[in-house]
Amino acid sequence: MSIRKLAAVARREYTETVKTKAFLFGVLLMPAIIVGMIFLSARMAVKAADSDGPIRVAVVDHTGRVAAEMTRLAAGPKDAWRRVEVEAVPPAADRDRQLEDLKQRVREGSLFGLLEVPADAIPGKGMCIFLLRGAGMSEDSREVRQLLNEAVKRIRFANAGLDTDRILALSRPVSVDQHDVREQQGQSSEAMANMMAPFAFVFLLFMSVFGVSQGLLTSVIEEKSSRVVEVLLSALSPFELMAGKILGMAGVGFTLVVLWSAVGYVAATVRHVQYLVQIGHLGEFILYYVLGYLLISSILAAVGSACNTLKEAQPLMAPLTFLLIIPLMFWMQVVHQPNSTLAVLLSFVPPMTPFIMVLRLTSGEAAIPSWQQVMVPLWLAAWVLFAMWAAGRVFRVGLLMYGKPPGFRELARWVRHR
Amino acid sequence: MTDGTAIRVEQVCKSFGSVQAVQDLDLCIPAGCIYGVLGPNGAGKTTAIRMLMDIIAPDRGRIEVLGETVLRRVKDRVGYLPEERGLYRKMRVDDTLKYFGTIKGVPRRRLRRIIGERLREVGLGECTARHVDELSKGMQQKLQFLAATIADPDLLILDEPFSGLDPINLEVLTRRILDMRDEGRTILLSTHMMEQAQRLCESVLLIHKGRKVLDGPLREVLRGADSRTIILETQETPPDLSGLPLVQSVEKKNRHHEIRLAPGTDPQDLLAVLVGRCHILRFEVKRPTLHEVFLARAGETAEETTATAEWGGRT
Question: Which of A311, A372, B186, B278 sees the fewest Cβ atoms within 10 Å?
Fold first, then answer.
């Protein structure tokens, strides 16, 4: 085997692939997904505020007291409501017309929300109406509701002749400092966000491993259908060709992952969720990436060598695609219970192994038993060697086969053949 | 290159399933000549060549190329233009040659020097930076030829190098092949274009149905074939000859008749019959062409009809 030839094949594979539109698409599309996911998980991680600007609320006050109390509290010493700006609106004769005008301002965005306080709100009989744009559970809307609550409570205390400040001081909440034991820096628990991280990792792995391997498949089929392959075989052994191509595409995958990770890290930093990127598992991530890539790319190289068109390759790829989708289907279960029977079992089914293991590693729910940490990579490595050997066999026969694509039985015969 | 032999093949067999592609092939190709491997489609030419190139392994038999029996050791010294050939369509012309040169073991510095030179020699000097799919078919074929010869191989194997070439490019390629022969390289030319073979080759091998029909220097092959076709041109309509026992058939051509003699007949006997019976303008013993030699020999294996049909379609 000549290293120089192998390197030449790899170099060509790399440079010609990164020039393609598919690569450019991959480079751009995936970061868009990553950024989207990070922003989504940041949103799910219920943050302190949706925005930093003032929250302007129009209060149509039929009691004549609530709006004033709210204004007083918002301007008061307590930090929580600093951002709320109360615009007291005396009720007009034409209620519908007035509400419609205000609603229009909410729609335009000059008002965050519109609060209508009925005359019997203080005894707690009437229902307040709160109108705002979009979903109602944001942090900003909670602040407005709290402020309203606080104002009404204070009016009630005063009406009853009680010392409001004294009651509030006595009923102040107990402070609780809640931590997630999994986090080093001691951030507060953000369960949803932490669920997303393993998924993001496995998605990244899946996209790069499977995407790049499919690129390899396409490239092998192209060499066959454009009949370059026989010229190549006059200079290279089939194994040099296959290994060179796998290596070149590995470089493509590496480029993609580096670019994607950079984008992901920057996005995470911007959204202050960089703790989602767990550097601690980087070594294992790389290990499973490399093994997973070698396994899947060998299989697809063999499939490509046996087919003349992508269409012919579909039925041969179907079982593999199916196996690879399983980890994406079970990710929730695996992340929740990384040592369940299901998770352990799936870890030992070769094409799934890298994906399941990355899910289990990043889940953080429980540590993976050390025997598995040793056995699973060895088991996978054994399969990689077998796959490369078998793929080499198929590759050698398949490259010069034109006509009807073989079935699985035929492929098995090629592997056994001499 | 021991004892001046470029290729030695002994008792080589190869079958695919139940199909015997090559049977008991013996071959000895001297170094420094142009050797033609001739036969119709499906004769086993490509299979034989692929075995020489170590692309497929023979079931049985011994192959020696440039003095080596471990063929992968000589891969870099053998240039190969397969029948099923192609190029990377999206690659640049110079990158293509650089790539094929590199995988053939040509040092990078040398490649940088010779690529432009080679392209200019075949009239592709302007195309260096163009992409392959912007070239015409003939240009692509010349590029393929350059790729096969970029490593200056001691042995060059060309499988159907002329198919689809226009007369001008055919001439360019023929010239290059002759030049390489003059440089002392051995050229194995597989073709079913008999005229080209007859023009270029010093020795030929005729192969049919996986078996050798005959081989040897071209002159001997042609001399060995009996000449039974007479071209007769007369001033007036010639007498009816078809009834004569020494005549097998008479065919009227545009301005002459072609008379096929019965086996074993001396053309002089026919001439003797004709003299005095008509005014002879031309009486010629037609020199057999490779085409006819092949048809005659392949016909002996009772496959004449298929062979004729295939030749007829492609030559």
Answer: A311
CA distance A25 to chain B (A): 18
Q: Tell me if B89 and A226 make a contact (CB, 8 A cut-off).
A: yes
Does B105 sit within 8 Å of A231, measured CB to CB?
no
Give the helix/strand (H/E) hosting B102.
helix B93-103
Strand partners, A130: A115
pTM above 0.80, yes or no: no
Gap between the Cα atoms of B197 and A222, Å rounded: 33
Rounded Cα distance between B239 and B245, Å, is 15
pLDDT computed for residue B112 by the predictor: 92
Contact A54, A85 (CB under 8 A): yes
The closest of B208, B239, B74, B301 to A234, measured between CA atoms, is B74
CATH 3.40.50.300 domain position(s) in chain B:
5-223
pLDDT digits (tens, 9 = 90+) for A61-72: 888 888 888 888
ipTM: 0.78
At B286, give phi and psi (nearest 5°).
-70, 130
User: Closest Cα partner for B57 from B95, B14, B87?
Assistant: B14
Backbone angles phi and psi of A375, in degrees to 5 = -70, -40
- Render pLDDT for A168-180 as a digit per residue (tens, 0 to 9): 788 877 777 666 5
CATH of the structural domain A54-166, one choice from 3.40.50.150, 3.40.190.10, 3.30.70.260, 3.40.50.2300:
3.40.190.10
